[in-house]
Amino acid sequence: MRILVVSLLRMGDLVMAANAIAGLKRKYPNAEIDLFTNDSNRGVVPLISAISRTYYFSRTSLQKDLGEAHRPIFAGIDSLKALVHEINRKEYDLLINLTQNKLSGYMCALIEAREKIGLVISENEQSTFGSTWFRHLNDFAHVQVPHLFHFVDIFKAAMGVSTQSSAEAMLNTEAGNNEISSLDTDRPILVIQPFTSDEKKNWRGSSWAEFIATFSRLQPGFDIHVFGAPNEKVRVQEIVDLAARRGAPAQATILSLEGAFALLRKSKLCVSVDTGIKHLAAAAGTQQIVELVLGSSDFKRTAAYSSNSLVIRSVESCQPCGHSTPCHRTELSEERPCATRVSPMSVASLTAQFFRRDQITLAAAATEYSDEVDCYLGRISAGGFWWPEKIGEGSGEVNSAYLLELFAWKMILEKEHLEIVAPFGAHVRHFRDSLNAGGISKFAIEQLIRNYSEKSGAIVRLQSDIVRLLKDNLSQGTKSKASLESEINSLEQQLDWKNFLLPRWRELNGHGLGQVRVIQRLLSDVEQLQQIRLKLLQSIRDLPQENL
Amino acid sequence: MLEAFRTTSGEPAFSYNGRLLCSKVAPYKEAQSFIEKHKDQLATSESVFLLGLGSGHVVERLRATYPFLKIVVVEVDTALIEGVSNCFAFSLMNIDIVHAADVSTLKGRHEVIKALAGVYTVLRQTSSQWLNADLYNAAEELLTGRSPDAFTYLLSVREDVREALRPLVEVGGPATIKTLNSNLDPAAGGERSKIKLLIKALRELVI
Asked: What is the pTM assigned to this prediction?
């Protein structure tokens, strides 16, 4: 069997994909699994186990073909055509697109395979997904609603592969080991990854230096490495120099990704902003990982896939902001409110408590710093999905609501609610097993049931109103586009999810009945979801109090 | 007048009307470094158009570095073609030297049309541009297809691309991938749909 996995995003996305690829290899041990990825990911490909061959998408070169006046106008077309031809010579049985963008969708339409899973866009702009999970990802790709599932879980569920630790997904290479051979130490290692390529997600250098100084006082004895890519050498050294002035020694460590992986394997602790290094740390088996979430970081989807991780998120209300847009509150990258709100003391204190694995003190610290940050522990639920368990005061109900959504959506995406004997009982058991001692009270469950019951009726009415509006307009065509959109918007505002239907309506613009069917399906999912939530809640309510 | 001489290391070199066409010290090294600058494009090309024969060292190095690359040289001066070709015995190699006094001559040449139908690179031989800069500029414009007329010409020799597009009434400035994307023919199907998908994919790279 020949399988091609497509991952046309950044290094961190590919490391997350590595986890799912390892699952694929377990499912099809004799399969030849190839990879199609951006050439900027060359540094990480040698680390991924299970890959037989890699095709590279030369994004920069193609952009030059398109943009430089002395290059032939058709050069890009010809280059891409040659690449597609080369890939198609392999005659793949299965293509899996792990990327949710139009570029990958068109490329996957060009690549021939007997079966395709993931986004494929035809020349007539018709999208197919081959999996309810990828369709779900697409439905929510550009919508400002809370995300539930980690990307790794979506990949695994869509591929139908089992969830296991990510440790087997990547290889420790000889080249990587050679790079760190001079870093021999008996002391525990802390690796700090202070920068991402997206300035919005960065914390200021002086804050990192202060963090190092404070953490060294709270938890002495660490060999601290401030890690960076070769182009970050100067900035990394600045942090090390500032920390030294505060009496905290640290090393500037510039390594390739293979070297970084080897170092992370030996590390007790990794503290990182939202960058691929945290995924490498999870894959390398770094004992504990702390992630600082600023700017556009969406930790629910992209946190380190680990059950030994702590997420520290700025409570600034606009976090997470949109990708690729500058901060709307300041032009100065170092003065962004989400970054300045988080103090080095809070991050150092929380990291030290997390390292000591003292849950009670950690929860107390999370409550103490709750005006700066929200804290979450990475968990793998009893149902096999990663989820962020909020810690600190009042977190029990937040966690219960999150798990309720997680299991309800899993049921709808796996179509479990349509089975003759739907597995509500199993999910309720998973729900109960996944909750820690600070779970939900019977009173809160009753409240939730009342809320959902009231909304259920409203959703059914709205569903019927919106679909009638769309169908009437399709047959009579009496409304202008603006007036129709305004009506959809006004009906949509009565639902819980703002800005949910309208973007999909616009995206499907001009596809007539197909457009209406997609909206109808989304609304039907909403309605069925509501029923599933209610059934789950009623089952949970019926559990004895001591089991909650 | 073309004059041949030997460098101090014994390599052949040329001057034209008293002006050097290559380095008088290390012409092969100079040619090799010129090729190196374009190696990414050349590695994936089936043909290369070299605008200006120059001293012939670039052609010779191209042949040695990329033995399967079809080389089409556009040169205006017959004396230069004769002198340099004799020195390097180009006629025995995978090289077409097209003598063109103007751009319209190029348009009809079968060597040119054949190369344009595949993957190609356009390089300007910098050392001899002064011989006829206007012609080389016009030739580059034609072969890259960025001007409205040149774009129309390229479409005429690229059936695969042409049939995926609606007729282009007016390009309105240099042609770009956006031009192609906005002129895709909704009715084109079959093999042409592949070109449409390629254009749509490339369009995503410049959004």
From this structure: 0.87
